[in-house]
Amino acid sequence: MLLLRAPLLPLEITAELRQRFDVRDEADLGPDAEKVVAVATKGDIGLPGDKMAGLPNLKMIAVYGVGFDQIDLEQAKTRGIAVATTPGVLTDAVAEHAVALMLAAVRRVVEGDALVRSGAWAHKKLDLSSSLGGRVLGILGYGRIGRRIAEYACGFGMRVIYSDLAPAPGEEEAYRASPVALAEDADVMVIAAAGGPGTDGLVNAQVIHALGPSGLLVNVARGSIVDEADLIKALKEGALGGAALDVFQDEPTPRAEFAALPNVVLTPHISSATVDARLAMGRLVIDNLAAFYNGQPLLTPLDF
Ligand code: 8YV
């Protein structure tokens, strides 16, 4: 039996799952937990330890997404449970959204939209905006998505620097050894790192202050990476210029203070939510599950 933690979009993916596998929705599991051998889940909800512990015969977790911070990997490892994610197929979509957020924030797109809609344009003008061209982009987390954001940003004439656990071969000059060093040299900082204990609260007051009053913080990764109390304080006090956020510590009900801030752009965790990306993610979930049920190697196993 395959336990489906949440429907996967587009709905044709969920329909194919139901047609090809013995699917049970989480809400309807009842006393059948012992029959579950595989779980299909999403990056943002994963499979926490207590849920995993309730599935004694689980052998495989298929994630629709690249995040595994919500999966109890320690338990999975101990129990020999395989995990597959969907790397590669959402890279472009997430990088595009990071650029959309950067542009929306620096070019005052959301403020401008509100001005036109409200009719206030007749008696009020927007402040001048800034350009991305010529500014320095600092990418925190230089994996597939971070690198694609770097490529796109070059098209706007931005200079790119990055921080990760180690410098990328051939790109040593652009490397900064810590988030603070990155923020000190960047005008815009985009977070594209994996969530989890290794990055929890990494972007704190020190990093935010290093980015500074004209700096912009963009997050398309995980809310857990940012200390939100520090971020809100800095945005209120003008210690940080602005933020453009697709992810939050509390989803889908982020801290109410965000909505009251004028210098933020907020989206509801939609970086990978294009039809193309989601179809490809769903296809990879299905193909990984098919490989598992056929006793074949998973296509995109997580190495943990
Ligand atoms: C998706 C994600 O929004 O890849 C991830 O880890 O968080 C996103 O791509 C999510 O998996 C779908 O809910």
Features:
binds 2-keto-D-gluconic acid, alpha/beta, Rossmann fold, 11 strands, 304 residues, 14% strand, 2 domains, five-stranded parallel beta sheet
Question: How would you characterize this protein structure?
Answer:
It is a single chain. The protein has helices at 11-20, 49-53, 73-79, 91-106, 109-118, 144-155, 179-185, 205-211, 228-237, 256-260, 275-293, and strands spanning 2-4, 23-25, 38-42, 60-64, 82-84, 136-140, 159-163, 188-191, 216-219, 242-245, 264-266. The protein is an alpha/beta fold and 304 residues long. It has two domains: 2-89 and 274-293, Rossmann fold (3-Layer(aba) Sandwich); 91-266, NAD(P)-binding Rossmann-like Domain (Rossmann fold, 3-Layer(aba) Sandwich). The radius of gyration is 21 Å and the shape is globular. Bound molecules: 2-keto-D-gluconic acid (8YV). 2-keto-D-gluconic acid binds next to loops.
